[in-house]
From TrEMBL:
Gene3D superfamilies: 3.30.1240.10, 3.90.950.10, HAD superfamily/HAD-like
Protein name as annotated: Inosine triphosphate pyrophosphatase
Species of origin: Triparma strigata
Coiled coil: none
One term of GO molecular function: metal ion binding
Pfam family, one: Hydrolase_3
Length: 561
């Protein structure tokens, strides 16, 4: 077994890449297949190597000696670089879901979070420095997501020092030792001007009496949604059960931020020595004191092991220094346009959108949930607006229209015509596309005008279409829409039909949209009204187009999940 590992490891070392710690180098290697590897091996050799990688658990092959030599981290990263399907999402809260400077989460991103929670394929979890209660409360106040939805998720809280499963049970925790607490508090009191200290014991947040009214302490609850800070009887340094972490807080002004900047190197020096703690920072007016060898990244690793997942099966989304280890471990990982430079350097991708522009949600759509930008082939603005209204509640899909000069196909089979037209459009656009063919079929004329209604309407108008049925007892008709969807050139075309029965009448109601004014619906709540007499919502419930797009919507929801 060891010789097999050496063989595989040697193959990796032969590849033209550097094991530099630069994340930019790793981004080139690990985000998508590159031509270099394909050129380096012939197709059969490359396929064989990939098959070996798929069937081999490198974590079992490397023995203790390898881990001791520090190679386990390298092999772990290598094993993550197959393009595995994402099965989990780890997402930060402040600065990521909640935009910088805001108290309320971005609504676009939370809608995507709800979709991720509902997904049968994915496990969504928060990875935050906040308490579980504080994180959930701060997201719920937006009104876009419920407490029940978030409580059903596992999570990484307090910078990875508390990890819970989907039942809310703590499966991992780490605490500062009492000496570390005392040392950090004393250093802050002696060298920190105008700074307060709070201690986190799970959901309980405590401070010394002197800090209760400190503006930084009060904002933890008022701005960040954390549980209210209470007075610690006997002082933080004497708290019997110790704390998961300490938070050193300054007012949100230049003087406060300067005081934090001045204290940080002193705390770091203390932590390296007798203090036995380490420092991280998420916000510029706060320093977090944590046990050695801990952090949000470590908490994410613990939870992924609990879920039987690896780093390359988890999308991480974060924005700040305290997210860097998580962003480096997970693949893919994303940060946002307004994130810190350090976070951007560690992430696989930097989104164009900021935290306030739905950047976190966009990252989840693109790199985990699946996001489609679908072109609707039409130049008719009324159709575009109607379809956007019909598909408004489909999450993860963006619709835009494009006018293409496609050939007018002839034939008796409307479905096959629709398929062929959609394939031509997909080839022209080079991506996902929908086409729509609508017919108005008069029973007395054996289905005419049918798909040619557009030209009949242009030449005859509403009155002329009515006159076509003069002399016939049967003025019945049906409206039909065939929606065809193709995911791209060469892919199979899916077809969705909708049909509504009615009669042809003299024009009533709005005449702004095609032949709506002369088609009186004979079904459901719209019976007895022309389409032109209905408002948009009413028409969408009974119309041929509404029925076809309802079927298409069901298909998309299943495909995206």
């Amino acid at each position: 077994m060891r010789s097999l590992f050496v063989f595989l490891f040697g193959l990796h070392l032969c590849r033209p890449f550097s094991l530099s710690r630069s994340r930019q180098t790793r981004t080139l290697l690990f985000s998508s297949p590159r031509k270099t590897s394909a050129d380096f091996y012939d197709a059969d050799t490359l396929a064989g190597i990939l098959d070996l990688h798929s069937s081999l658990n490198l974590g079992e092959v490397v023995a203790e000696e390898v881990q001791q030599d520090g190679l386990f981290e390298i092999v772990e990263k290598m094993s993550q670089n197959t393009n595995s399907r994402v099965r989990a999402i780890a997402c930060d809260v402040d600065g990521t879901l909640i935009p910088r400077g805001s108290r309320v989460a971005d609504s676009k991103s939370l809608k995507v979070v709800r979709r991720a929670i509902k997904s049968k394929r994915l496990t969504f979890f928060l990875a935050t420095g906040k308490t579980r209660k504080g994180a959930i409360d701060s997201l719920v106040r937006s009104g876009e997501i419920t407490e029940e939805e978030l409580l059903g998720c596992p999570g990484v809280y307090l910078q990875g020092l508390v990890v819970v499963n989907s039942s809310g049970e703590v499966i991992y925790e780490r605490r500062l030792n009492l000496a570390s607490v005392a040392a950090a508090v004393e250093k802050t009191r002696t060298d920190g001007s105008g700074l307060a200290v709070v201690g986190y014991d799970g959901e309980t947040i405590l401070c010394d009496e002197m800090d209760l009214d400190h503006p930084g302490v009060t904002q933890l609850n008022e701005k960040y949604g954390e549980p209210r800070v209470m007075c610690c009887e006997g002082g933080l340094s004497n708290y019997a059960s110790s704390f998961h972490k300490l938070l050193v807080i300054a007012p949100e002004d230049e003087a406060g931020i300067a005081a934090v900047d001045a204290l940080r190197p002193k705390l770091e020096k203390l932590g390296l020595g007798a203090g036995k703690f380490e420092i991280t920072q998420a916000l510029e007016n706060m320093i977090e004191v944590m046990p050695k060898l801990t952090g949000k990244g470590e908490g994410v690793k613990v939870l992924l092991r609990h879920l039987s997942l690896r780093g390359n099966e988890c999308l991480a989304v974060g924005d700040a220094e305290n997210d860097e280890e998580m962003l480096e471990f997970c693949s893919p990982s994303c940060t946002l346009a307004d994130s810190s430079a350090g976070a951007k350097a560690k992430a696989t991708y930097v989104m164009e959108e900021s935290s306030g522009e739905g950047g976190a949600g966009r990252a989840m759509e693109v790199h985990a949930l699946g996001f489609k930008s679908i072109k609707f082939v039409t130049g008719n603005r009324n159709k575009v607006e109607e379809v956007k209204a019909l598909m408004a509640d489909v999450e993860g899909v963006e619709f835009d229209n494009v006018a293409l000069d496609l050939p007018e196909l002839q034939g008796s089979d409307a479905v096959e015509i629709a398929r062929e037209k959609c394939m031509l459009a997909a080839k022209e656009i080079g991506g996902p596309v929908i086409t729509e063919d609508t017919s108005l079929c008069f029973n007395a004329l054996n289905g005419l005008p049918g798909p040619y209604i557009k030209w009949f309407l242009e030449k005859c108008g509403h009155e002329g279409l009515n006159k076509m049925l003069d002399g016939f007892d049967d003025r019945g008709a049906y409206a039909q829409t065939i929606v065809a969807y193709c995911g791209g050139e060469g892919e199979e075309v899916e077809v969705f039909e909708g049909r509504t029965e009615g009669v042809i009448v003299a024009a009533r109601g709005s005449t702004d949209f095609g032949w709506d004014a002369i088609f009186e619906c004979g079904e459901g709540e719209g019976e007895g009204k022309t389409y032109g007499e209905m408002d948009k919502a009413e028409k969408n419930l009974v119309s041929h187009r509404g029925k076809a797009f309802a079927k298409f919507k069901e298909y998309l929801n299943e495909e995206l999940d």
